[in-house]
Specification:
Layout: E1 3-7, E2 13-18, H1 21-24, H2 30-44, H3 103-119, E3 123-126, H4 136-145, E4 153-157, H5 162-168, E5 174-178, H6 184-188, E6 192-196, H7 197-204
Parallel strand pairs: 1-3, 3-6, 4-5, 4-6
Antiparallel strand pairs: 1-2
């Protein structure tokens, strides 16, 4: 079983945590990860794009000019896609882009993403994460202590902490999420993960995607 070091708020050793091989030592799932990320992004799309066809644009009631004698091509309406201001041919219409994937496949992709992060040393498990007051400076110091302030950081908590959330919101590359809402896309779209011990235990018990 892979071991992960547990740190305190000052980046000092606070023990180790054993993780299940079946969940946190998954390899060779690149295709599955790709499918899970595409599924997540597709389900996020609003699909509200809309264009007007020739029957939707204004005008077009009268024939623009007579049929013969002008030397121009025949035209029956100025709604034609060939005309400026006319309708759009096969333009996008409102639609639902979402689709479903098997639950087991999504969970396998989720744990494969976590396994990759652990293998790359981009996961920090902290014994507890709290601040006295909502102060961005204090949270920046915490991230600096762990050496993860240079890139994007995802802070994973078991239960929401208002002070931590407010302290993180002014750090552009830092985001916060609950363990129960974590998914493969969130894991892969951040350089480092800062996870509390309680959140890590809940992930092992089945929280997250």
């Amino acid at each position: 079983m892979p071991d992960v070091a547990i740190k305190d708020i000052n980046n000092k050793d606070a023990g180790k945590m054993q993780l299940d091989d079946a969940l946190f030592a998954i390899k060779g799932k690149d295709a599955l990860l790709h499918s899970a990320v595409r599924n997540y992004l597709a389900n996020r799309r609003q699909g509200t794009h809309s264009t007007k066809g020739r029957s939707d644009v204004r005008g077009g009631g009268a024939k623009p000019y007579k049929q013969k004698g002008t030397g121009r091509a025949r035209a029956g309406t100025n709604n034609s896609p060939l005309w400026r201001g006319g309708g759009t041919v096969f333009g996008p219409q409102p639609r639902d882009y979402s689709y479903s994937m098997p639950r087991k496949a999504l969970r396998q992709a989720f744990y494969a993403a976590l396994s990759a992060k652990l293998a790359d040393g981009e996961v920090v498990v902290v014994n507890g994460l709290s601040v006295d007051a909502p102060k961005t400076k204090q949270m920046v110091q915490v991230l600096d202590t762990f050496g993860i302030s240079g890139g994007s950081v995802l802070v994973v908590l078991k239960e929401m902490d208002a002070n931590v959330a407010l302290s993180l919101r002014n750090i552009p590359a830092a985001h916060i999420i609950l363990a129960q809402d974590l998914n493969a896309y969130d894991v892969l779209s951040h350089r480092n993960l800062l996870i509390t011990k309680e959140a890590m235990e809940s992930l092992e018990d089945g929280s997250g995607q």
